[in-house]
Amino acid sequence: MTPPAPARDDLVRNQGVTAAAGFKASGVAAGLKASGNLDVALVVNEGPDHAAAGVFTRNQVKAAPVLWSQQVLTTGRLRAVVLNSGGANACTGPGGFQDTHATAEHTAATLSGWGTGTGAAEVAVCSTGLIGDRLPMDKLLPGVSEAVHELAGGLGGGFDAARAVMTTDTVPKQAAVQADGFTVGGFAKGAGMLAPSLATMLVVLTTDAVADAAVLDAALREACRTTFDRLDVDGATSTNDTVLLLGSGASEHTPTAGELTAAVTAVCDDLAAQLMADAEGATKHVTITVSGARTEDEAVAVARTVARDSLVKTALFGSDPNWGRVLAAVGMAPVALEPDRIDVSFDGHPVCLGGVGAPGAREADLSAERISLEIALGLGDATASIRTTDLSHGYVEENSAYSS
Amino acid sequence: MTPPAPARDDLVRNQGVTAAAGFKASGVAAGLKASGNLDVALVVNEGPDHAAAGVFTRNQVKAAPVLWSQQVLTTGRLRAVVLNSGGANACTGPGGFQDTHATAEHTAATLSGWGTGTGAAEVAVCSTGLIGDRLPMDKLLPGVSEAVHELAGGLGGGFDAARAVMTTDTVPKQAAVQADGFTVGGFAKGAGMLAPSLATMLVVLTTDAVADAAVLDAALREACRTTFDRLDVDGATSTNDTVLLLGSGASEHTPTAGELTAAVTAVCDDLAAQLMADAEGATKHVTITVSGARTEDEAVAVARTVARDSLVKTALFGSDPNWGRVLAAVGMAPVALEPDRIDVSFDGHPVCLGGVGAPGAREADLSAERISLEIALGLGDATASIRTTDLSHGYVEENSAYSS
């Protein structure tokens, strides 16, 4: 049974992480970004509960803040998340790890000074930006102090935090849903290096539902599996991917596991769609749906192989219904196939039937910004979709002139 | 022990498939290409031997000529190879396979009419071009007849055949080496859809060495493993990849397996370098060398993961020594790593030592057209290299406007 979609409301949506009761947030400009834009964000859980769960990058090269946050999450408790843009603090060695530790210590001490008693072991840290440089701690720590000072609920706090984590993002990304008796909200950043294992991004989610860490963890993993894990812009997975879910229990309502998972999934799905829409240089937003697979995992594997194929992606940029490239990409998926059973459609327009071109296939109109690519394998009943984008001049331009 | 490199000679090199004794070739314009350029090629082995070996695409979606040629190669004998550009004859169903069969039949019958007795089962067929359309047989078969008429040895035949298989290639690609007592030559086509499982291309190699099909097969597989299989321009593997090696025995010289493998490898290496140099839209020619791996296969896996990373490739296009993206790509390779042992250099200039940025890393000069990217894993003694290119505006331009 599919649970009913939670009602959405723009006012709630635009509060993001502060939509749920028990949370405050802030975003300040600490001078990490040359532009002078906001670059330090803080999300604080005022309780009464402090349960938390996290999912992290599968990249073996993990940034210092990922190593730190994985460690503190083993307790299933978080009071705060401090985030910075303007530097990933990845590949920075033991010194970089000490910087993350110092950031958590400073956050905890400053919060305690303002009346929220906490220790560094209850503070997660997230960083995003260029890989390889140490963070300017002389700017970051005063920024954290200011972020504590600026903490606010309602519209302002969530919005400022969402802006402070932006890198090449052009818009802040927030979402929230009010479910029956509780609320889930969140923000996300990410515009490039977007691939599986979490679509290279930072996401902080909050809920006022009453739920222990294990329940939050199960809901978060299931939500990520079907949303962020199925967004693949360029096949590149970052060193810093982090998705956190904090529960305050402030609603005093205990949803069922299914209700909580549905609400968290709805927020993640909304944020994933926003990440795709803002992907670097993208001119097309493409949903690749593979049906007729033996298993859901095989459907995902085929869709992901097509989503990563440079020739399919450049054809989409050119609005070219080049279904032969789709077949060639499908044929390289790590799944046993029957090529003469494969059907392909663009936006419901059949271009390939039984592995052979359909009449009028070259005339399919792909000029729209949103494209649905449907691939039926004829092997079973499983279906899955991957969200991706085209490979455009804008992507090449933006990514050939990022660091220097 | 590395065998000595065979001597090369431009006159020999420019004969390509007709450099070895016992071979004739031709290229004609049959009207398959709208441009009116050459589009049908023929290579004939006049013996006395007719041993042959082939290696084909690993794509599960295989073009009709691949299915045909794999079948005829099971005998280890070939008299002729007929090739066409202007259409891949892939995803064309049973009708497309009948077209390939008819092409082989017509080639055999025409050759027999000119005194070279052969049957269709001794004729391999290769096709390249757009996937999904049937070939215009009313043009192709007369073209085959003309190609038989035009067969020639020496400089002319090999050169015309090499030109007739070009698609988006800008130059014909030929190579040949004179070893001790025998010669190996060949041509190649391929400029896009270049990836492992043979770098999406057609290659015909010839030798006048005396060698049976099993010896040719072993030499060809070893040569492909270290040359074409380590060229990865865009990660896309075609439906039509074919590499054939034909032996005439006309030199009456029987080389050792090592001598034959060395000569075939030298020709394949030369052709692979030419394929990289002519890759669609490439502005950089990059060799990624991974050392310190536990096994050669693991070294290849790491190098290939980096070679396919869009963010590494766009950084190279921008001459940006963004070693953080290299580390992030390495971290996603399907190999167990120790991130804090990884060193990275560009052209011998260290940019990352022990997983951390080296002093002056951002100043590495990548403005040259040829770039060497060296990655040392610190895990073992195995080394391997992959040839690749950058991801440029030219690649996007060429591939967003190919079929329509």
TrEMBL record, chains A, B:
Instruction: From the UniProt record, list the reaction(s) this protein catalyses.
Output: N(2)-acetyl-L-ornithine + L-glutamate = N-acetyl-L-glutamate + L-ornithine; L-glutamate + acetyl-CoA = N-acetyl-L-glutamate + CoA + H(+)
Entry EC number(s)? 2.3.1.35, 2.3.1.1
Q: Could you list this entry's UniProt keywords, alphabetically sorted.
A: Acyltransferase, Amino-acid biosynthesis, Arginine biosynthesis, Autocatalytic cleavage, Cytoplasm, Multifunctional enzyme, Transferase
What enzyme class is recorded for this protein? transferase
Classify the source by domain of life: Bacteria
Task: Enumerate the Gene3D superfamilies for this protein.
Answer: arginine biosynthesis bifunctional protein suprefamily, ArgJ beta chain, C-terminal domain, L-amino peptidase D-ALA esterase/amidase
Pathway of action = Amino-acid biosynthesis; L-arginine biosynthesis; L-ornithine and N-acetyl-L-glutamate from L-glutamate and N(2)-acetyl-L-ornithine (cyclic): step 1/1; Amino-acid biosynthesis; L-arginine biosynthesis; N(2)-acetyl-L-ornithine from L-glutamate: step 1/4
Looking at the UniProt record, the site noted as Involved in the stabilization of negative charge on the oxyanion by the formation of the oxyanion hole sits at 128-129
Q: What residues sit in the active site?
A: 200
Q: Keyword Cell division: yes or no?
A: no
Location in the cell reads:
Cytoplasm
Q: What is its main location?
A: cytoplasm
Q: Where does substrate bind?
A: 167, 189, 200, 280, 399, 404
Entry annotated with the keyword Iron: no
Pinpoint the site Cleavage.
199-200
Q: Which GO terms describe its molecular function?
A: L-glutamate N-acetyltransferase activity, acting on acetyl-L-ornithine as donor
- One Pfam family, short name: ArgJ
Q: What's the stated role of this polypeptide?
A: Catalyzes two activities which are involved in the cyclic version of arginine biosynthesis: the synthesis of N-acetylglutamate from glutamate and acetyl-CoA as the acetyl donor, and of ornithine by transacetylation between N(2)-acetylornithine and glutamate.
How this chain assembles, per its entry, is: Heterotetramer of two alpha and two beta chains.
Family membership: Belongs to the ArgJ family.
Please name the PANTHER family in this protein's record.
Answer: ARGININE BIOSYNTHESIS BIFUNCTIONAL PROTEIN ARGJ (PTHR23100), ARGININE BIOSYNTHESIS BIFUNCTIONAL PROTEIN ARGJ, MITOCHONDRIAL (PTHR23100:SF0)
Know the name of this protein?
Arginine biosynthesis bifunctional protein ArgJ
Question: What is the gene called?
Answer: argJ
